[in-house]
Task: structure prediction
Amino acid sequence: MRSGYLAAAIVLFAIEVLIALFVRDDFVRPYVGDVLAVALVYAGLRAITPLGVNAALAVTLAIAFAIEVAQALGLLAASGLGDNAVARVVLGGTFDWVDLAAYAIGAVIIALIERVRETRERGRA
Result:
């Protein structure tokens, strides 16, 4: 287990919960929340799997895009979870093309952070 990524996932999860509980706006909750959700999934994957940066980013984006496609197809309601508040917060309820852009932005930010981190580590070696 990679403890740094686990710590990041825990912090990101706490931030996401705070946003879900207390933020009611048209920018932070829907878009910053989506960027952070990508970071949360990525950090979680890196904490518990041997995946490298590129593979973890690809899996993260696949998960995010799959959830968005499920929203477009109405799978939450079809599964009987449409009225479940927790499921709606975690999986979202409505498809939005902008969400896909937010996920991609999150992935780019993660890639940049990882590149800076790797460059710093190489400089120390």
